[in-house]
Write a structure and sequence with these properties.
The chain has 523 residues and is of the alpha/beta class. The protein has a 7-stranded mixed beta sheet, sandwiched between helices. A 4-stranded antiparallel beta sheet has the order 10-11-14-13. It has a 3-stranded mixed beta sheet with strand order 1-2-12. It is elongated.
Length: 523
Amino acid sequence: MESAASFAASASPAAAIVVDDEASRGLLRKAWDISFRMALRYIKSSYKDDPFRTFLEVCLIGFIVWYITKQKYNIGTNEIELSEREIDELVEEWKPEPLVPPLTEFEREALDKSVMIDGPNGTKVRLASGTNNKPVLNFASYNFLGFLDSPELGKHAVESLRKYGVGSCGPPGFYGTLDVHMELEKQLAAFIGHSSAILYSQAITTTLSVIPCFSKRSDIIVADEGVNFAVQKAIYLSRSKVYWYKHNDVADMERILKDVNKQLVGRRGKNALPRKFIVTEGLFQNTGDIAPLAELVELKHRYKFRIILDESYSFGVLGKRGAGLTDHFNIDPHEVDLLIGSLCFAIGASGGFCCADKDLVEHQRLSGLGYCFSASMPGILTIAASDAIQALEADPDNYLVSMRENTTLMRTLLKRIPGLQVDGMAESPLIHIRLSPETLVRMKRSGGTWTKTDIDRVLIELSEEALKDGVLLMRATYVDEHERLLPNSSIRICVSSAHTRKEIEKCAHAIKSAVSRITSKKR
């Protein structure tokens, strides 16, 4: 009896466990049955109300199952074990690729012979590489109106450091806008005669921002093939369809405008009416030529295009007031849809601007990359630019007349030098000189032809000879492989209103002596 009782007592916990397991299974079956019924009811109702939703969910479930069950790529599956010796050998053999291509022999030679200004820039500078500390005449820097030599502007700009510091450290749309920025924008718009203006902190980023801001992938640009490097890169960044016309050739441009409009006839779809732009420079950096704005405006209206005019080098130089190409030809500035200018070359400060209708300016505040993502112009440079424009407005003859007289005198003296070719229009203080083809033929006594590198070496030698006489000249340099129309090798002379007549004559005499010395050498 005791054994039976003890067996029953020991068996009762096991029986209880069995009963609990059966109860659990029953609950699970019941829960599964309820879940299945609910899922089936949901599928039926969703199929009845929205069969596409059911199809989409089935596809999603199938994708999840496929993704979970597919074979995964294991990075360590094909790992190769290397010994310490093999690792050391690979490290010794590895040579990193250079960040930039190595310099050619000529590039190294030109770099070694380059000069550096030690101290402030102006019409007279001291060179860090000079054997003596005597100042030399500077005809290499852009200082058309001589504001770099103005002690009044410099003094006022330095005083502004106490109020504005050295920089804003932020983009204009965030916390980089100062009161002097807004005042300068109003001043520029009033001086040019346009509706509104926007200020950029760097001259080159102005062009690189304005053109891509308005001309997009499906739009059309008809551009002068002689525009400077910044304009070329801006056109490239726009990704627009580009047509290049011959430099300053109005007839060739009109031919292209006709062809473009013919191609758009009957065009349908999203890109049926692309935006169409004419892009050119006011005063061409690479040639010293001036764009025929009157003819461009006429063609703009005839063929329904917009004009983007880069006045980086003509602002402050051309016109009765120095207001640029529109002032030079007495044309309403509103005829130019987007007018780009620089505050570096004539004004002696930094940065750039764009004058346009108010809507176009406000669009740039949100879409101009150089405006949105670059720190704004330092207050000291903004005040320097504002003071320079105010001085030019107050007494334009004091700056423009002397600059043009100096330009005329320089061109007259240079044209008298035998063997020298002088390029550019008479009004341009930006003068390109080069040895004439006949002179180069006489110099090549050993026979053969002149390469661009050979001519560049001669021009470097010419500038070195002029420096011996106390005149600083620089060869015009280009990124050859990126130029649409690579200009001929030349020395670029920048005439300033701050130069005196004696300094102009000294420069011309130094060039004449240098040409005489280098052309007499056997080559």
